[in-house]
Each structure stands twice: as C-alpha cells, then as structure tokens.
Design a protein that fits this description.
single chain; mainly alpha; 17 helices; about 325 residues
C-alpha cells in the first residue's frame, strides 16, 4: 500500500499496517476532530485523529522505528472518543487521559487483535505498555512522535508553520540512545516556539475555550437526559451532534445553537464568563552536541524564557468574555 501525507510525503507501508488502517476502528477516526469542539466555531480547525495517527506512524517509520512501534503509533489514539478531549471536560478529568483509560477495552472489543494475530503479533505485547516505545511516547518535556506530529500538523494546516521550516526541523532530528533529539539550537528554539503556538495560542485560543466549555455543557446535559449514552462517544462527532439535534430537549437545542462560526469572544480577566485552566504542557528538547545530550534550556535564553512564560500562562489559565 502506498500512503501519502502532506507533512512527510509518500511511503510504501507493510500489509499489516494497510489492513489496520482499513479497519472500522481506524476509519472511525476520520470523523473525530483532533481539536475537539473547535471545528464547530471555526470550520478551518478540521484536522482529524486519523490524519494524526497515520502521521505518527509515518514519523516513526521515517526515524527508523521498528514495524512494531509503527503499529503502536498508528493505533495509539484509536480509543479517542467523539470530540477528542472534550469528554475530559465533561467528566472534569484534569489529566485529560480518558481515552487512555479505555484504550485496552476498545482494542479488545475490536477487530484489531484478529488482524494482528493474522500477522503473528500479540496485541497485548504491542499495545498494553507503550512506555517501551521510546519514539512514540515520552513524558514532557521530551520530544516524541505523538507530540511532534500534532504540533507540526496543526500548525501547518492552521498557517503557523511552513513545509520548508518543518522539513528543516525534521532533517535536524535524530535518534540517540533511543530518544528523539535535535542537532542544533536553532531547530530547538523553532520547535519550542511552534509548540507553544499550538498548546497556548491554539489550545487556549478564547474561541476554542468557549467551544469546549459550551460543548461540554451540552454533552453533560445530554447524558443526564439520556439523549446520548457513554457508549455513543465511540461514534463519530457528527453522529452525536445529529443525535442531540434530533432530541426534543429545549435546553440542549439552545446550547447547540450557541456553537457556530459567528461567536465573538475576547480575553478579559475582569469581566469574564469562563475561566479555564488547561493541562500544563511544557517542552524542552534534548540536543546532541559534542557527543553528549544537553537540554535546550541549558544553552538558550529564548527557550528558558518561553518555558517560564508558558508555565505562568498555564497556571493562570484563560479568562473569556462572551460578546
């Protein structure tokens, strides 16, 4: 199977990956927006979990990761519910890891174990403990394929990063002692800046904060009124929207009507309607320089300053006034 991606280019992939991509569970991710509620207030914020999952797989492949790690990368987000992380706001889950909590249940109840068994892979070995896949996942503030792909993908699609800059960054990346690291401070500073454009300027965009808050209210009420069930969250985004639209519950209808592209909001710390704190996400890439690993923040004032400012913003949260 030949697969083409607008970030990484064209690759030939193995049959097991092709069959997993064609599975019902992976195809569902085409209907799950990575930005959660964001597409409801801005139709251009439309990157899907499917694009990201395939991208993570291809990045691992590009970096020389094993086929097993590519499989783990492809499937790492298969349990994301409709509207991605919005469910964490429905349940006030500050760790934002609901999809991780249900991951193995989703896998076991899917056709994925059957596909993997066909190619002589044990799904539990591949997927039960992703900590063994050093390229796929790393705790913050490290680089990892998951963190790098969603940053590059969103920022490219939303006009904050060029393909030329992305290619230069990717060409500077190597795997050393099993970890992703960079070879120049310029690449590290560029990625730290780009990452904070993602997790601060985009994730905490006041319009995004509004959309998450309003949709979380709508979903919570719809659960209480039994318009939807928890199992429905394993459907696609638009299926849940249509289920809620077709209900006769006036309050649900009213909330849904408040999710549209003409919403006007602003940041206002004095007169605000919503105050939200997102999960703290910091980045401090490792550099391979002079035959040793060193943190970007140890040699870059810019990286240190960006991290201090980011930490303060995460702690403060964002205050949103609805106009």
């Amino acid at each position: 199977m030949i697969i083409s991606d607008y970030i990484y280019g064209e690759f030939e992939i193995e049959d097991v990956l092709a069959e997993l991509i064609s599975s019902k569970e992976m195809q569902r991710l085409k209907g799950i927006h990575q930005g959660g509620a964001s597409y409801l207030v801005n139709s251009r914020w439309n990157v899907t979990r499917y694009e990201h999952s395939v991208g993570v797989m291809l990045l691992i492949k590009q970096l020389g990761g094993s086929l097993e790690e590519q499989i783990a990368g492809l499937l790492h987000d298969v349990s994301h519910t409709a509207f991605s992380h919005v469910i964490d706001f429905v349940f006030e889950n500050k760790a934002e890891d609901y999809h991780e909590e249900i991951f193995m249940d989703v896998i076991r109840n899917s056709e994925i174990p059957i596909i993997l068994r066909k190619y002589n892979y044990n799904y539990e070995y591949l997927l039960l403990n992703t900590a063994k896949w050093n390229i796929l996942e790393q705790p913050a503030p490290e680089l990892c394929a998951d963190r790098v792909d969603y940053t590059l993908r969103d920022m490219y699609v939303y006009g904050q990063a060029s393909l030329e800059d992305i290619e230069k960054f990717l060409n500077d990346m190597i795997i050393y002692q099993g970890q992703m690291c960079l070879q120049s401070i310029e690449s590290a500073e560029w990625f730290v800046k780009t990452y904070y454009q993602e997790v601060l300027d985009f994730f905490m965009n006041p319009l995004n904060i509004y959309a998450y808050d309003k949709l979380a209210q709508t979903l919570k009420l719809s659960l209480e009124k039994k318009i939807i069930t928890l199992a429905d969250f394993l459907k696609e985004d638009n299926e849940l929207i249509e289920r809620m639209k077709s209900s006769n519950e006036r309050q649900v209808q009213s909330l849904l009507k408040q999710l549209h592209p003409d919403v006007k909001v602003r940041v206002d710390q004095k007169e605000f309607d919503i105050h939200q704190k997102n999960k703290t996400r910091l980045i401090d890439p490792l550099l391979y320089l002079h035959n040793r690993l060193i943190r970007a923040s140890e040699i870059s004032d810019d990286v240190r300053k960006m991290n201090v400012a980011a930490k303060e913003k995460f702690q403060q949260g964002i205050y949103v006034k609805i106009l």
